[in-house]
Structure formats: structure tokens, C-alpha cells
Amino acid sequence: MSATLLDGKKLAETVRNEVRVGVAEFTKTHGRPPGLEVILVGEDPASQIYTRNKEKAAKEVGIRGKLHVLPADTSEDALLRELDRLNNDDTVDGILVQLPLPKQIREQRVLDAIRPDKDVDGFHPVNAGMLASGRPSLVPCTPRGSMRLLDLAGARLEGARAVVVGRSNIVGKPMAQLLLAANATVTMAHSRTKDLAAVCREADVLVVAVGKAELVRGDWVKPGAVVIDVGMNRIELAPAKDGEPAKTKLVGDVAFDEAKERASAITPVPGGVGPMTIACLLDNTLVAARARVAAKNG
Ligand code: NDP
Q1: Is 81 labeled as ligand-binding?
Q2: Structural domain contains residue 6
Q3: What is the span of the domain harbouring residue 238?
Q4: Which CATH number do you get for residue 95?
Q5: Which of 91, 153, 260, 284 is the most buried (most CB within 10 A)?
Q6: CA angle in degrees (0–180, nearest 5) for 204-157-265
Q7: What integer is the mean pLDDT of 213-224?
Q8: What is the pLDDT of residue 149?
Q9: CA 99 to ligand 1 center in whole angstroms
Q10: Considering the chain, what percentage of its residues have pLDDT values greater than 70?
Q11: Structure ipTM
Q12: Residue 1 has pLDDT above 80, yes or no
């Protein structure tokens, strides 16, 4: 058996088109487009690419996207002042601070300083709490995208055994909350879980967000399971030689070639969860803009 491939690139295009329509309608009704401000502190090359992609993707759907690049030695106070300015700017609907931050800045203090109604990453404790108490408002983008992929797979979540490997605040925990809200029976596994293979083998729906290349082997997958691989790991195929850069490859947390022989559906890496994350960020910006306007109009 070979699993159905869950094409995140194609689904992300569908989501972007939905957002484009919503943004045009919002702009017509309110005389301004939704606004997304992306803040990058420092010059981390991967973060530079991510933030530029976010700004570009926003503009492509008609959102007013703006990237602020602050120097690597920016103080925590200076960043908090910038956030305060954006929090109080009525034309700004979404604020995102790219992680990781330089050492002198405490990440949690910064994330806590973003107004919850503009927190399009969904990382603020208020938004995490709303999700945990069954009243989701702004939900983290990667888990939202993963839920759309499960929907694409036609996965029956009600009553299903779901296993989420990884318990980070940005992926694993909110993913488990969304699956629980969809009436799955959810197990959260992590680095201290005993016999992870046996836990995974019970899963009708297996979501893996660990950051360890091909940790989950094919025989950990229950036959017929739906597998969502969130991991993005760059592995070296050949070292740098004679002035040529090292040959690398992006792989997931699941051994794809093995797992696809057992799963009924599986996300590839790249081209699975990754594209959905940005698409859901755009959607969150539209959701935030609509909610803010609705709140203002009482
Ligand atoms: P974190 O490092 O914050 O969390 C990793 C989690 O995996 C932790 O809960 C950790 O457990 C658990 N873990 C680590 N080692 C093992 C192990 N051997 N067995 C079982 N569990 C283990 O990572 P993130 O959640 O931020 O990201 C996870 C992966 O997803 C990364 O590869 C990242 O690049 C990718 N990612 C992809 C995105 C996308 O858009 N496609 C977006 C965000 C992330 P413990 O809590 O016990 O330490």
C-alpha cells in the first residue's frame, strides 16, 4: 500500500485564494486593507528568509504587510517600545515577532507584550488559554494548517486515537487542544515518553513535531493511520568540498519512505505542513482584522 500524499502547497493556494477574497471585501467595506507588521531583530539568515516570505505573501493577497528589521543589539526596552507603538496603531491588525530573538531579549516578555487581539501567531497566554478553555480566538498557524490537512485527508477525528509527539507551546500543545476539541482521544508524547514506538502505533492520527530527522520509523505507524509530519530538519548528504558548499536535504521527523507504505495519508517534507503555516498566518490576520472592527463597532 502507498499512502495518499497530502499536498500542502496546493491546499495553501486554496487558503490564500479564500483569504484574497476576504481581504478584498474587508478593504472595500472598511476603506483600508488589513495590516500585518512583521518584526525581525538581527540578521539570522533563516529568519530573514522567513520574514521576507511572510511580508511578500501578505502583499500577494492584498494585506498591507510591513517588515521591520531592527539591529541585532536592539535592547528589550527598545523592542517593547516598538511593540507599544504598533499595539496602539489602529491600522495594524496583526503583529508578529520572528523567533528566535537575540540573547539580551527575553522571548516571553516580548510575546506577552503583544496585544492578544493582534497576536496573529497565537502565542500570547491569553490566546493559549482561550484555546485550552474551548473558546479559540487566534490559534497558532502550524496547528491550524495541520488541522486543514487532516480535513483534506478526510480523517475522522471524532473518537479517533490521536497521538501528538512534541509538546511545545507553538505546535504540540495547541495541536493537541485542536484535536481534543474535534473529539479525538489525545495522547501527548515527548522526550520522556516511555516506549514511544508503542504509543505511536496506537495512533489513528499521528502528528509529529519534534525536530529530529526521521525519528518516527515506518513500523511505528499503525496501518491506515493519517500522518502529519511537522518537522523540518536539514541533513547533510555530502560535506563541503573543493569550494563547493555541502549538499543538504530537508527531511521531516518521520521516515517518509517507510511510513508511506503503512499510512493511508501522509504529508511530505517539504511541501506539506510548511506552506500551510504561512497561509494560515494570512488567514489569522484577516480573522484579527474582522474581529477588531467588530469589537470597535460594538
Ligand atoms: P521544540 O524544540 O520547541 O519542541 C520539540 C518537542 O519535541 C519537545 O516537546 C520535546 O520534548 C520533544 N522531543 C524532543 N526529542 C524527542 C524524542 N527523542 N522523542 C520524543 N519527543 C521528543 O520544537 P517545535 O515544536 O518548535 O518544532 C518541532 C519541529 O517542527 C521542528 O523540526 C521545527 O523546525 C518544525 N516546525 C515546523 C513548522 C512548519 O511550518 N512546518 C513550524 C514550526 C516548527 P520535551 O518537551 O520533553 O523536551
Answers
A1: no
A2: no
A3: 141-274
A4: 3.40.50.10860
A5: 284
A6: 50
A7: 98
A8: 98
A9: 14
A10: 100
A11: 0.99
A12: no
pLDDT digits (tens, 9 = 90+) for 59-78: 999 999 999 999 999 999 99
Question: Is 245 part of any domain?
Answer: yes
Q: Of 115, 132, 158, which closes a domain?
A: 115
Q: How far is the CA of 252 from the centre of ligand 1 (A)?
A: 11
Total of domains in the chain = 2
| Active site residue ranges | 54, 98, 121
**Residue with CA at minimum distance from ligand 1 atom 48:** 191
Under 8 Å between Cβ of 205 and 157: yes
In a domain, 297, yes or no: no
The span from the CA of 30 to the CA of 27, in Å, is 5
> Could you tell which of 54, 123, 170, 190 is best to mutate to test the pocket of ligand 1, judged by most ligand atoms within 8 Å of the CB?
190
Q: How far does the centroid of ligand 1 lie from the alpha carbon of residue 168, in Å?
A: 6
Give 24-76 as a 3 state SS string: HHHHHHHCCCCEEEEEEECCCHHHHHHHHHHHHHHHHCCCEEEEEEECCCCCH
**Gyration radius (Cα) of the chain, Å:** 20
pLDDT of residue 135: 96
- Same-domain status, 56 and 174: no
How is residue 7 written as a grid cell? Answer: 499536498
Distance (Å, rounded) from C-alpha 175 to C-alpha 146? 8
Ligand 1 centroid to Cα of residue 36, in Å, is 27
CATH of the domain at 239: 3.40.50.720
166 marked among binding-site residues: yes
Residues 87 and 182 in one domain: no
pTM, 2 dp: 0.97
Q: Is 191 in the pocket of ligand 1 (CB under 6 A)?
A: yes
282 touches ligand 1 (CB under 6 Å):
no
**Is 216 among the domain residues?**
yes
- 298, pLDDT greater than 90: no
Mutate to test the pocket of ligand 1, among 6, 47, 191 (most ligand atoms within 8 A of CB): 191
